[in-house]
């Protein structure tokens, strides 16, 4: 008898995104410039800390870490390729309520902006899929261009307009 794969509980993954981001930013504050390798190590360590607290399994923490790394590198790619301000990557006005989380995210992404090798490898193709967790910012449906705004880490739903499941950042 084969064991069926059960889907990961998405809401706990979205809730773990922010504490992992906070741990990464704490370590980045004393770093002038971070490489993709250093970023990966920091994210793994943050995931291990979250898993130790019993909030997530090791596998779930690794998955959230992948989402966090994807978002940070995507934001850094935006800055490197457009020359625009990192806050423009979000695609919406930031309110006071969201300011702390957004500032944390922007601090972490800004530290990764100098790392060009892996950032360039990630360019172009949509890398966001329904059911995954996305950090703050705006996603655009790859099929119909409907914009979805995420003010907090959340599970990506299927497109409300066409029900497609692939998205990209708005730029």
Oligomer: single chain
Mean pLDDT: 78
Q: Could you tell me the number of beta strands?
A: 6
End-to-end distance: 47 Å
Catalogue the unreliable spans.
1-8
Count of DSSP helices?
A: 6
How much of the sequence is in beta strands? 5-15%
Largest sheet: 4 strands, antiparallel
Shape: globular
Structural class: alpha+beta
Report the order of strands and helices: HHHHHHEEEEEE
The strand line-up of the biggest sheet is 1-6-3-4
Helicity level, as a percent range? 40-55%
Whole-number radius of gyration? 16 Å
Write the layout of secondary structure elements.
Blueprint: H1 10-28, H2 36-52, H3 58-82, H4 86-90, H5 99-112, H6 117-121, E1 128-129, E2 133-134, E3 137-141, E4 147-150, E5 154-155, E6 166-169
Helix pairs in contact: 1-2, 1-3, 1-5, 2-3, 3-5
Brief descriptors of the model:
alpha+beta; four-stranded antiparallel sheet; disordered N terminus; two-stranded antiparallel ribbon; single chain; 171 residues; 50% helix
Protein model, in words:
This protein has a domain at 10-124. The chain has six helices and six strands. It has helices at 10-28, 36-52, 58-82, 86-90, 99-112, 117-121, and strands at residues 128-129, 133-134, 137-141, 147-150, 154-155, 166-169. Strands 1-6-3-4 form a four-stranded antiparallel β-sheet, with no helix packed on it. Strands 2-5 form a two-stranded antiparallel ribbon. The protein starts with 9 loop residues before the first helix and ends with a strand.
